[in-house]
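Q: Got a minute? One more chain.
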Amino acid sequence: MRTVEEHRAAVAALFPLMPVEVVPLAQARGLVLAEDVASVTALPPFDNSAMDGYAVRVADVTVLPATLPVADDIPAGRTSVSALEPGTAQRIMTGALLPPGAEAIVPVEHTDARTDRVTIEVAPSPRAHIRSIGEDITAGQVALSAGTVLYPAQLGLGAAIGHAGLPVYRRPKVVVLSTGSELVEPGRTLQPGQIYESNTALLCAAVEDAGASARAVHFVPDDVAQFLATVEKETADADLLITSGGVSAGAYEVVKDAFSDLGTVSFVKVAMQPGGPQGWGRVGAVPVVTLPGNPVSAFVSFEVFVRPVLRAAMGMPVPDRPRVQARLIADVVSPAGKRQFLRGFFAAGQVSQVGGPGSHLLAHLARANCLVVIPEDTEQMAAGDTVDVWLLEGAP
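A: Always. Here it is, folded:
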């Protein structure tokens, strides 16, 4: 039986770093910058006013109150301005180009706000309320470093320094394929022996949450020839194929039967619960990860093996799930020799098990906000013991 670490390494070896592409800023959120990006311009690109007010020479406002004629009016966006003559002021708006000769900005609140002659009540210090060219960043300076995850602030900076697009590691294109003749699309009427198909919704959401792009292929029946034909068609433009179901030891395990015949996908038992039966390999050049069919097993397997691989392929931090320690509220038991991933609820440094260990108990998973990790060599833990916890969405 393979360890969790051994199988994680085997899956990781399938998937290289994604190629680099330049994408528009609007499509870059959450992706990782593949190269250093230098500023096209200084930021600010010119000396400008930080306030609505009046541009003045300091010597003209040392004796207060000082009344000066207003020689010009400078709105933001004006591309040329006249020099500020001694003994005059120019009304100026926030962000507007500073006129040559101006030494300070007097905020409008410190004046009588007139437009022909202005009376100034408070003397400004030199360079008061002036944003200097290159104060934030200079032209040619590296503004965003390779490896940076692009969130709103980084994208705003990219736009401010003159870039319409940024070089990033491309999102992996992932095909999610569920098998099983018993599966029925949600919303239809169930017949005896049928169940609603849920793994596609679960795994596609998990793929997107990891930062990749997911495409669902629904309801492939338990027929080897039809399964392989579907795989060949759907993976023509894919970076990864994830299947769920059909990998156990019983009859009618279509994924295992079909891929075993190809000889390029291997199947193993991993020392974990849930999620023991696993598979990995390639179909042509496309990496394949086969997950168990029970929803909780599929979810846990994705978290343990697939999510970190997808994120690493995009240059993202791994692991990204916060990992903390917490005190157990109640006793728990675990099978010997297997790493247990229990559904749990974490709050205020404590964690409790949510529901039983059954891999079909999806409602309990939906109420959990963490996975409680019990080591392979531990069969029971008592209330008050400290355990490792992986925080999921909704955890405080």
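A: The two ends are 36 Å apart (CA to CA).
Q: Perfect, thanks.
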